[in-house]
Amino acid sequence: MNLPPSFFDELRARTSLAAVAARKVTWDSRKSNPGKGDMWAACPFHQEKSASFHVDDRKGFYYCFGCHAKGDAIGFVKETENVSFMEAVEILAREAGMQMPARDPKAVARAQERAGLSDIVEMAVKFYRGQLSGAKAAAARDYISRRGLSKQTVERFEIGYAPAGRTVLFEHLRGKGIDAKDIVASGVAAQPDSGDPYDRFRDRIVFPIRDARGRAISLGGRAMDPNARAKYLNGPETELFDKGRALYNHGPAREAAGKTQSLVVAEGYMDVIALAQAGIGHAVAPLGTAITQGQLALMWRITDEPVIALDGDKAGIRAAQRLIDVALPMLQPGKSLRFCMMPAGQDPDDLIRESGASAMHALLDGARPMVELLWERETEGRVFDSPERRAALDADLRKLLQMIEDPSIRNHYAAALREKRQALFGGNRNRRGGFGKGVPWRPKGAPEPASAGARASFLAREAHALDDHVRLRESAIIAGCLNHPDIALKLEASLERLPMACADLITVRDVLLFHLTSPLHHDASAAVEATMTQIGYDARERLNTLGNVRVARHLAPEADATVAQAAILEEMAKLTAEMGIRDEVRDAEEDLHGVADEGVTWRLQQASLARDRALRGYKDEDAETGGEQELSDHLSRLIAEQVWIKKR
User: Fold this and answer.
1) Torsion angle of alpha carbons 13, 18, 19, 22, nearest 10°?
2) Which residue among 9, 140, 521, 526 is least packed, with the fewest CB closer than 10 Å?
3) Ranges in the chain annotated CATH 3.90.980.10
């Protein structure tokens, strides 16, 4: 809401910055002069020993000569309590006894109603706190003691006890003159379809739930009866309390997070309380539900990267994985999540009691980025031993990337997932697939090595003659993909594994596949244009200067998609065979030092057969095809004659 300048003038006139700052600092009596409003202290915004934080109370401004922080009373409250500008104004106005400017009458009425309901919840909090020291709460006190909670912690979190009686609180509030319907509306009592209202919390340890400003908005309770239908129970949705837009320990955690620049998100009340007692006061918890978008928005208002520390059981892991889907559409630059996975079967409370606060700090320090959990969720327990299974993973990842609305985040997630995908599938690549030579393989029972003279054979030299063929083949494939990017996207997995030799064409392929699978581009054509921009030239024009590409109508942009796909696939099959021959010849040349003639013969025969199978059925009668067949025939003839064996 817009506030008039006169309101701020009066607020500043009524507010002493020195008094406000005194809640956070200790004035240096040697340097300060209260009579002149000239106050000095160690800065609350950075660690220091000398008093370099200065407040000019008459002018209403502060300045630190160490870290250069500066501002007025509103800014000081905003920074030290980690609240918004308007919240800081409301805090100061309340302390100064000022009414905020009038708003819409309906909004004013609603605010008054909420304030009245909050007062009722506050009365319930005080009542239950008093009950904790009574005779009927002995079992509750024993439980609190067994959980290791100190008296200070119980006071800090205002823990109470709800007696087992059906209407103990209801009658207490009625005795205070509170209307029955208002008691029910506040959520502390329930109204059955027939009969009188009754206390919602009975024989339970009670935890007050407050909003970011510290107003009581609901209650939570832990059952003392092990046979209770619900171990933990939260108040119902009311005018005050929206479970999906509230966090347990919100206000204190926000203030603590302003100092630590971090926020821990645990599963429940006891986890938050245990963390606070261990010195980790910047912890919150959702309230009986999975973390919602509303709660995420609250967390990101507190800090940029909340750390999710859910229980280490299956339910906790599933909750963390579900949260990924909630968070993906909301990601913004700098706003993300990290995950601290607890040991199996433990929550933060368990870990701290068994291993101490240092163990919890170590886990939090090792929190992992969200993209890692996303990858693990999509790959854990799955086997990718076939193209179809890998393609299924690719489809799943593309769907997840589409959920990210921010284009920059989408782009970076796509890059990170591509790296992980390549690392996963890289272990399956071998020299027969054209991704490196790999571990040499030899047939069983191979005889003695061949003569050294075989290394100078025509067969070994012939590998170099394949270079022109390979470049033409790769050029045709890349040209077809650039002209028909939708087909390239469909064939992404096969293209990525395709063995290629020409570095410039490999670059075009990799950049094209990156952009095709990135949700940053609204269609495949846009991905092609992005590819041209990134590589710095129009690869389509250069490729079109090659004769076999220029005259290949089945690869042209106007070619029928079905025909183009068949042509690209055929070229890919031939290239794979061509590169297989190169690898086999290269390996044969190297292995002539230590593999017998029969072994080399067998391997080259298998390579020739594979190449012939790939080339078979190609009906074009151009010169290129004739050259390939001539090479294949010549290779087969050389194998049959065993030209590398020394003749006697």
Assistant:
1) 160
2) 9
3) 104-241
